[in-house]
Amino acid sequence: MVEIDCAGLTTSEINRGIRHSLGPEGLVRVVNPSSRHNLAVAVNHPGNIVFDGNVGYYCGGMLKYADVEVNGNCGWSVGEGMMSGSIIVRGNASAAVGAAVRGGTLVVHGSAGPRVGISQKGGAIVIGGDVGYMSGFMMQKGVLVICGDAGEALGDSLYEGRIYVGGRIEQLGNDTVAKQPDDEDVSMLRGLFVRYGIRGAPDPEAFTKIESGRRLYNFDKQDVGLWKAAL
User: Going from the N-terminus, what domains does the chain have, and what CATH number goes with each?
Assistant: First the structure.
């Protein structure tokens, strides 16, 4: 194990140390991150990175291959644009968790702010608590699992993505359809909860599944009011 103490180091120095210390079987432990922004961005090597403490904006952005764990809370846009690997946040997260994620798995054991999974293009995002408004906005592919409650405009302008909510939904977004999860959905949810140690989640059979109503796939002048509301 390699330990990097952030005290007295610049963000660039911390990130260079992380990249140079990574290995397929290695572990890099980063102490005293002190809510710094842009930590572990653009990492494209296998390995394990553990942050002991809170991190700031964009932690793990554009991640590829590596597995990141945050023993604390995180700021905006954790895992933005990540392509593969995993990010596990043991605390809470701010806005735009997993924005434009393309692959991998992003788990927040606590709650998250608004716009979780905005423009998500693949992968899986799991939130152990609640999320704020406009989560899943313009979600194109992938899975978004919310174990708690969801705010307004959930899944607005959703395309091929799937959203699962274990709690109350404040308001569905435009062009969404709510339905019961099928056996495949239930099996997938149980697998995620076991693999990532999500405790206290509702029974997967009690979740609500949100999909696209497919009215916004192509413009139709008869749906102009719906388009105005979405935009």
Answer: 2-230 (2.160.20.60)
